[in-house]
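Hey, I'm writing a tutorial for new members on how sequence and structure tokens pair up, and I'd like a real worked example in the thread rather than a made-up one. If someone can provide the structure for the chain below, I'll link this post from the tutorial.
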Amino acid sequence: MSNYLLQRGQKWHVKVAIPADVQHVFGKRAFKQTLKTSDKTVAIARSGPMIAQFKNAIEEARGNPTQHLDEYLAHTQAFLRKAKANPDTDPAAIDGIEGEVLDRLVKAYGVQREEQLPADAEAGVIRAYKVATGRLTKFAAPLEEYIASRKVELKTEAKDRHAVAKFASRVSIVEEVDRKAVRDFVKWLSVEDGLKNRTIKDNLSTLRVYWNWLADHSYAPEDRANPFDNVTLPPENRKAAAEKVRLPFSVEDIRKLHKAIEGGRSEMMRATFMLAIYTGCRIEEITSLEIENVTENTIGIVRAKTAAGNRTIPIHEAIKPLVAELKARGDKYLLPDLAANRYGARSPAMSKQFGKVKSKLDFDSRYVFHSLRKTVTTLLEQAGVPESVSADILGHDKKTMTYGVYSGGSSMEQKREAILKLDYRLQGASR
């Protein structure tokens, strides 16, 4: 054991040499550690566990020659990227680091020189070398940097991660992403994953934004067209697609739903339903509504996904008592007794409860909670409410130049008059 001890000044240290065949794994020739004592007897006692730990690491490395290699390559890639962007960096220093990268990759296969590499390993070494030295870029490598720059909700962040990882599992290198690769990916999503065009389109939209960011940050060529733009989706059976279109509930349907919800669902489900049918709000808007944005006569939507979505809606007379009762509880949220999921969303539980209710009433997949919003839209149109006023209530973008650009929006009186046209003739609607 004393062969592993050395004294520097008054203190003893332990040193275990790393065999040449695995030095590339650890990036050094020996393990060294101070024993924090000048007493040799104490040093011997303390060195035992350390020596055993170092020897175990060496044996593990011999069993797995690529141990720590990925971490080293990722660190080197980031370092070289910054070094090459700095005009003051010595080119000889960069050449030296790149030479070390190649040396480590070669030795990971248990050989000392490139020409000794097994035939089936050469392509992998070349690819790994090009990635580590910045000649190639892994598609998902900048993902964390991208996510950090986005400042989006957790649910959107999870969607971004999923889409990028899914594509990277098929095409791992940025330089290999082209129109054909994207078309093949779309075909794979449709045939192998069985995804519908709407979901495929969502994936492509996420990847399109990610690619633009890659180009803006020099991870992808700026002079290349975005390969995720204008991608042709697989043909769908029009009859089958039509059968899956979301439909509005009729007034009679609303009465059936109201009776079922009043008869056996939670107080929060009843409140969510009533707010939906008398405001046309999305379920996320209702469940995240904070009391500070609710007055005696209005509801304010302030953190919508679009500018048009941020709006003020008059409170229908039928739900004024309900809103006043909920607001009097003094909680942060108008609907206080809802648990958020891991993404911070408070709507999934309500959506699930509503799904159970409508299924028991034999409504098929074309009818969902969002169908209530379609019901409000339909009733406003049938009551003769101008489209521009309905858009201001529902938070829709206005398509014309006159209303979409130059108009300051409908007055509160116009919106109140429109809202009051919603009449479902419900029993006990104000409770």
